[in-house]
From TrEMBL:
Keywords: Glycoprotein, Leucine-rich repeat, Membrane, Receptor, Repeat, Signal, Transmembrane, Transmembrane helix
Residues annotated as signal peptide: 1-29
Pfam family, one: LRR_1
GO molecular function: ATP binding; protein kinase activity
Gene3D superfamilies: Ribonuclease Inhibitor (3.80.10.10), Transferase(Phosphotransferase) domain 1 (1.10.510.10)
TM ranges: 603-627
Protein name according to UniProt: Protein kinase domain-containing protein
Main localization category: membrane
Organism for this UniProt entry: Thlaspi arvense
Organismal lineage: Eukaryota, Viridiplantae, Streptophyta, Embryophyta, Tracheophyta
Residue ranges of domain Protein kinase in the record: 680-876
Length: 876
């Protein structure tokens, strides 16, 4: 050793030390061989590409979703297989062989069963604490045995059916968090679960019976969600004994009786939602003492609103709308309030000025459809966050300029229609630079429309009808580049009609005014306009030809003017009303289809008619329907809308997906979350219209679906129920006709909804007519197509939903006619909306105050379509 220098000795020592270390690593810091081989077997079965990366094949602790015990990596404790598109659950038997497992997450896959014995016989998983099966398609499993350490069970968003009592949940003696939301379970709210339960979520099932008194025994509960079931009876007083409860959600059941005062004794309770039930009686005072969030809308509560209800200092959201509350609005309102909804009650008296002084956070204020009187308090202008102000349908008086005063630039929606406001529209309205909807119709406003109104560049709807406005329309109104609806009917306007806003679409209504002279040629630029109402003025001269080339027009109302001459010929999808014009001559002698010698040209006429005449229906007010719809749909089942959350960009949460067909194939194919995710990027759409986007979405199973998405832009202001929406969507699924395309499924999610269609029919009529050599479609086929479409449309127009609401065909064009084969067309793109009772939309749109709706293309269109087709049959 003499010859060896000391440095070398050190090196050799180091070398040995390192070899020892790595040995140690190999010997003591790796997964046991049995777990390694189990995991490798699992990886072969699942074929997850991330698990086979070079270098990690034999070290499962490195695999994505696998977590080993620390510090030694000696055993697998966490296994997450979430979102791996798994369809075959046999792998669970392998999972059973990992006795050290504590967390198992198989959420968001396409599993529709659980292998026999997993729940009952997997005794090896003695330490499992957390089992997440949410977002699969499991319809049942035998009740739990074992799993005595399970603390968290998430089985939400599956198809579990049968009685909740049969799933052996009482055997889970350590359970703390139970989530069974969105299943199909029956039975009653379980009271024999472990008393250590902290979270109980069973919303969106078919549970019935009452809320059991026994629920008070779950003293640890912090969250109860029983929403969207069929529970009846009253809320037991004893719920007030749950001293740790933070959130109590009972929305959308059949509950009755009064709201128990005992709830106000729960100091931790921050959220209480009991909306859409049958509660009666007065609301107890003190109920909001600790609350942030109260929703009791859509009940039959009455009496006055307790003086302290709105003043509690933690309050953020309060919704009392759609009840029978009377009396005055309390004088004291908490500065913490963000949203206050008191609409559709029987409130009277004045809004106290002091109450609305400097409510820093107040963003949404809705008090419409009451009997409030007096002035609209100027102090609202000192609410710096106010975005939505809806005081429509009350008895407010005073001058409008007082009301508008200094309202903030944050305001986006102002609805003051159907009050008794007087005075002029103030010039200061121009300061509301973010205004999107302005409705001050049906008041007693006078003076002229201030030219500064054209500075409201974001305005999309302006409704000034039913006032006493005079003078002419401001010359620069055409600067309103975003305006799609302009209602100026029922005023005393006169003078020159200026160039109108170029994007007008829903309607331009100038009826019941004092306009005269010829119909202005500048209207020819309104290529998107669907309804034009010039009735009840003094327009004179001939009806100009350019009106016939407004391609989107569906309704033209010229009645009660001084027009003369022949009416030009309009396409059949325009409903023309020229009554009350003494100078208009009729064209009795003219025949629509001129007889020509039989031959191809006539057949071309038929097909062109089908292709273009049907295309005419394009115009059918998709806008209105889409806009109405977007407002109708509201996820606000229990008022979860947090404006701050709404603004953030996250993958939207699936609320409810439902298959509309009994074809089980689709059940295993469709993955709702995938669809929501895939349609989150507008740039990937196949086709976009103003209101809808169409996507082709491949599902994990390999098959693709055509998915249609509503492009909502004002979801903050949506007002109706998701319940009604679901009913409408389900109705669509019940249609049955060989020539009608019916959606296969729908999904509601936090931002709207999607409709699923089969993608198998890849050719549209448009493709066939335009891109293929003409000999592909012979005349017999063309004839069959024409007849098929006519029958499909005819079926739809004869159909009604269960409450008599007609079915609508917006945006129908040859691009939306799918071909099952060269002789079998499918009419696509049908909707079913309770938009408006068509019988009310007679000659003047003003009859439909504020609610422009769909006007069905009169029966004559269909009849003519069928007629012209059968005429051809005779000729050929
Ligand atoms: C495993 O997945 C790859 C693609 O990720 C695929 O090519 C291969 O065929 C799959 N193997 C089996 C056995 O399914
Ligand atoms: C355990 O495995 C992880 C990877 O999952 C690795 O980063 C870590 O170094 C390993 N620990 C030991 C002591 O081997
Ligand atoms: C194991 O997974 C669960 C979720 O399934 C997670 O909450 C937990 O933090 C994980 N454990 C560790 C140590 O990462
Ligand atoms: C699931 O996998 C197992 C084992 O590979 C196989 O026997 C079974 O047929 C599969 N089930 C389905 C429905 O594919
Ligand atoms: C279960 O998984 C889903 C989807 O990954 C997740 O959203 C949910 O929070 C998980 N549940 C629990 C209790 O961790
Ligand atoms: C627990 O209660 C349910 C009804 O809520 C019942 O069906 C079930 O049999 C009960 N289980 C036990 C063990 O009592
Ligand atoms: C849900 O359960 C009800 C009643 O048990 C049953 O009629 C219905 O068909 C079930 N629906 C689904 C989708 O399983
Ligand atoms: C529970 O509430 C009822 C009625 O509110 C009361 O009589 C009873 O004493 C309370 N029990 C407990 C344990 O607090
Ligand atoms: C208003 O909202 C902000 C931000 O959420 C909050 O910090 C503040 O406390 C609120 N004001 C009141 C009076 O509650
Ligand atoms: C509006 O605000 C300005 C200055 O901020 C003030 O001078 C004016 O009096 C206010 N008008 C009304 C109607 O409150």
């Amino acid at each position: 050793m003499k010859n060896v220098p000391p440095e070398a000795g050190k090196s050799i020592f180091c070398l040995f030390f390192f070899i020892f270390l790595s040995c140690c690593n190999l010997c003591f810091s790796e997964l046991s061989s049995s777990q390694t081989s189990t995991m490798i077997e699992l990886s072969r079965f699942l074929n997850i590409s991330d698990w086979n990366l070079p270098g990690s094949e034999r070290n499962p602790c490195l695999w994505k979703g696998v977590l080993c015990s620390q510090p030694d990596n000696g055993s697998v404790i966490n296994l997450s297989l979430s979102g791996f598109d798994l369809t075959n659950s046999s792998f669970l038997s392998l999972v059973c062989q990992i006795p050290t497992l504590e967390h198992l997450d198989v959420s968001n896959n396409i599993l529709n069963s659980i292998p026999d014995g997993f729940m009952t016989n997997c005794e090896t998983l003695v330490g499992l604490k957390h089992l997440n099966f949410s977002g699969n398609q499991v319809s049942s499993f035998p009740g739990f045995r074992g799993f005595s350490k399970l603390e968290v069970l998430d089985f939400s968003n599956n198809n579990l059916s049968g009685n909740i009592g049969d799933y052996g949940l009482h055997a889970l003696v350590q359970l703390k968090r139970l989530n069974l939301n969105f299943n199909n379970l029956t039975g009653s709210v379980p009271t024999n679960l472990t008393k250590s339960l902290v979270i109980l979520k069973v919303s969106d099932n078919h549970l019935s019976g009452t809320i059991p008194e026994g629920i008070q025994d779950y003293q640890e509960l912090t969250q109860i969600d029983l929403s969207d079931n069929q529970l009846s009876g009253s809320i037991p007083n004893s719920l007030g004994n749950l001293t740790k409860l933070g959130s109590l959600l009972l929305s959308n059941n059949h509950l009755s009786g009064s709201i128990p005062e005992s709830l106000s004794s729960i100091q931790t309770l921050s959220r209480f939602a009991a909306n859409r039930n049958r509660f009666t009686g007065a609301i107890p005072s003190g109920i909001t003492k600790h609350l942030e969030n109260l929703d009791v809308s859509y009940n039959n509560l009455n009496g006055s609103i307790p003086g302290d209800l709105l003043s509690q200092r933690k309050l953020i959201f309060v919704d009392l709308s759609f009840n029978q509350f009377d009396g005055w609005i309390p004088q004291s309102i908490s500065p913490s309030l963000v949203r206050l909804r008191l609409g559709s009650n029987k409130l009277t008296g004045q809004m106290s000025s002091a109450a609305f002084e400097s409510l820093q956070n107040l963003t949404y204020l809705e008090m419409d459809n009451n009997s409030l009187t007096g002035l609209i308090p100027r102090e609202l202008a000192s609410c710096p966050s106010l975005t939505l102000l809806n005081l429509a349908m009350n008895k407010f008086t005073g001058i409008l300029s007082h009301a508008i005063g200094n309202l903030t630039t944050t305001l986006q929606v102002m609805k003051l229609q159907q009050n008794k406001l007087t005075g002029e529209i103030p010039d200061s309205i121009k300061r509301l630079s973010n205004l999107y909807t302005l409705d001050i119709s049906w008041n007693s406003l006078n003076g002229s429309i201030p030219p500064s109104i054209s500075q409201l560049r974001n305005l999309s709807t302006m409704n000034l009808q039913g006032n006493k406005l005079s003078g002419s329309i401001p010359a620069n109104i055409g600067d309103l580049n975003s305006l799609i609806e302009l209602q100026l009917g029922d005023n005393q306007l006169s003078g020159r009609i200026p160039v109108m806003p170029p994007k007008l679409q829903i309607s331009l209504n100038l009826s019941y005014n004092l306009f005269e002279g010829p119909i202005p040629t500048s209207l020819s630029q309104l290529q998107q306009l669907e309804v034009l109402d010039l009735s009840n003025n003094n327009f004179s001269g001939e009806i100009p030809d350019f009106l016939t080339v407004l391609v989107s027009l569906t309704q033209l109302i010229l009645s009660n003017n001084q027009l003369t001459g022949f009416a030009p010929r309009f396409t059949r999808n325009v409903i023309l009303n020229v009554s009350g014009n003494l100078g208009i001559k009729s064209r009795k002698d003219e025949v629509y289809i001129q007889k020509k010698p039989p031959g191809k040209s006539n057949l071309i006429l038929v097909v062109i008619f089908v292709a273009t005449g049907v295309l005419g229906l394009v115009a059918v007010i998709i806008t209105v329907i889409a806009l109405k719809f977007s407002r109708r749909f509201n996820g606000v089942n229990n008022m979860q809308v947090d404006p701050v959350e709404e603004r953030s960009v996250e993958v939207p949460e699936v609320i409810h997906g439902k298959l509309l067909t009994s074809n089980a194939l689709h059940r295993s194919n469709i993955n709702f979350s995938k669809a929501v995710e895939a349609t989150a990027h507008p740039e990937t759409a196949l086709l976009q219209t103003i209101f809808w986007s169409y996507y082709r979405v491949p599902m994990p199973s390999g098959s693709s679906y055509l998915i249609k998405k509503l492009n909502t832009r004002d979801r903050l202001f949506q007002q109706a129920s998701s319940e009604q929406l679901e009913q409408d969507l389900e109705m669509l699924g019940k249609l049955h006709h060989p020539n009608v395309m019916v959606p296969i499924a729908y999904v509601l999610y936090s931002e709207g909804f999607l409709l699923f269609y089969d993608f198998a029919h890849s050719h549209t009529l448009y493709d066939v007519l335009h891109s293929h050599p003409s000999d592909v479609v012979d005349w017999t086929s063309r004839y069959s197509i024409a007849v098929g479409i006519a029958q499909g449309i005819s079926y739809l127009h004869g159909s009604k939903s269960n409450d008599g609401v007609p079915i609508l065909l917006p945006d129908l064009s040859s691009k939306k006619i799918m071909l099952k084969s060269l002789t079998e067309p499918l009419v696509g793109d049908i909707e079913l909306f309770k938009v408006i009772d068509p019988s009310r939309s007679n000659s003047s749109l003003s009859a439909v105050a504020g609610t422009i709706g769909y006007i069905p293309p009169g029966k004559h269109i269909i009849q003519n379509l069928i007629l012209s087709v059968s005429e051809k049959q005779e000729l050929s």
